[in-house]
Design goal:
Structural class of chain B: mainly beta
Number of helices of chain A: 1
Shape of chain B: globular
Order of helices and strands of chain A: EEEEEEEEEHEE
Largest interface: A-B, 26 and 28 residues
Oligomer: heterodimer
Number of helices of chain B: 0
Helix content of chain B: under 10%
Radius of gyration of chain B: 14 Å
Strand content of chain B: over 45%
Strand content of chain A: over 45%
Structural class of chain A: mainly beta
Radius of gyration of chain A: 13 Å
Number of strands of chain B: 12
């Protein structure tokens, strides 16, 4: 079955460390997205990519980095510059134009905690 | 700015009754859909219903329906015959500028009382 796989489900980071969250999809979608979810703030866009080797900053990109070397994969790195990284991270994908019409398919999320 | 507002952080309803969740938005896009997503305790986001802005007829999916008022930029979700499995966070969403990504509201936590 097609879908989006996020790993790991839970991740713990020490102060000053970089960590990478994995997102893989086998839906043949061109567009992929990373959102951060905090209580009471809904989903906020971190980065998105419409095509391989290209990506754009979202509303809260500071302290994060991404790459899009393959259509199927869109990993997110949370760097030490992100001052408050504890949150739930959601990856999504869509065909081109999915934000206008079809909506997203979401992964099951990664819960990141700073220890 | 493209914004979406859900003014009800929490709602509760008795099982089998009807509840309406509100959403207002502001967009400069002319051709778009609007979406309601459900996030149960598992935290998996599930598309509940979508509405094409150019269609006057409100969308319906089984017990879920929308009341779309384009002039008022209002997009409410009605859940009929509420069931315990409907308990979740509900998010409305619409395309941001350029329609390359979705903008989400803050969410409404719905509790179903047995």
């Amino acid at each position: 079955d097609g879908g989006i796989t996020q790993s790991p489900k839970y991740l713990f980071r020490k102060e000053g460390q970089n960590v990478t969250l994995s997102c893989e999809q086998n839906l043949n979608h061109d567009a992929m997205y990373w959102y951060r979810q905090d209580p009471g703030q809904g989903l906020r866009l971190i980065y998105y990519s419409q095509i391989v080797n290209d990506f754009q900053k979202g509303d809260i990109a500071e302290g994060y980095s991404v790459s899009r070397e393959k259509k199927e994969s869109f990993p997110l790195t949370v760097t030490s510059a992100q001052k408050n990284p504890t949150a739930f991270y959601l990856c999504a994908s869509s065909p081109i134009g999915g934000a206008r019409a079809g909506g997203y398919t979401f992964g099951s999320g990664t819960r990141l905690t700073v220890v | 700015a493209q914004t979406v507002t859900q003014s009800q952080p929490e709602m509760s309803v008795q099982e089998a009754e009807t509840v309406t969740l509100s959403c207002t938005y502001d967009t400069s896009e002319s051709d778009y859909y609007l979406f309601w997503y459900k996030q149960p305790p598992s935290r998996q986001m599930i598309l509940v219903i979508r509405q094409e802005a150019y269609k006057q007829q409100n969308a319906t999916e089984n017990r879920f329906s929308v009341n779309f008022q384009k002039a008022a930029k209002s997009f409410s979700l009605k859940i009929s015959d509420s069931q315990l499995g409907d308990a979740a966070m509900y998010f409305c969403a619409f395309p941001g500028k350029g329609a390359q990504k979705l903008v989400f509201g803050q969410g409404t936590r719905l509790t179903i009382n047995p």
